[in-house]
Design brief:
alpha+beta; 4 helices
Amino acid sequence: MLFKFSTTDLLSTALVDVATGHRAYNIDTVLLSDSEDSGFTRLESPTPKLTTLSFSSTSSSFLSERSSRPLPPPDAERHRTTIADAAGRILAHITWTGRQPDITIGDEHVGDLTKLFGSSTVRFMPKILAVPTRFNTEYVWNATPTSLTLIDYDTEQVKGMFHQDVLRIPSSLKQKASLPSLKRSKSFVRTHVSGVGQNYLEFEPTPLVEPVEIIISFIMMEILRRGRFDLTPYEFRRPKFWRLQEARDLVLKQLRRGTI
């Protein structure tokens, strides 16, 4: 399955099925009023938990080393992200209190990130962030400063991939019927410039889970990836400015490398 993002804002976009050219999913995020309840869970485990998305580009860590995380301030903004199919049926929603997500998929209230992923703790590695899925412990999201992939560690095969800021070669349309889903990486050329090109999410469907759960886990992993590797953080309020800032940060990093 190959989906094209209609905008650069991961939380306010449409996912277009490249095979059909039709819109498959709508992702929409709105600011909640003060009267709406979003709820959150206090953590009391002494083990570092994967619960809060780090939107801070000043920290390379997204896990708390303390026994519990502080609750969001009373004035923390609350947002709701909904994912609907092409017919408008809501398949999942995420309620955000500050940067804490509370996830519901279909009729199942999943909760925070510890429930979405297959582990409540994550090993720190210098150049990679590996987080297992809950539907298959062999399926692991691998994030690096420049990539995000879903890997089946049992077969060592790539099952999902985020193609960011790429140009897609049209001739691949003629070949897709004879090629396995994730053998088309050569169909994409990276521009290496933030905001230039298109973004695509590609993954192989599995009977173990609905596609919407893979989409949600991808969104969370992409935001976590940015916090872990000190990349430009996602911002709810100014998504367009966020991409401009990302491009600026990339240029400044290149300039710094050139002067060292």
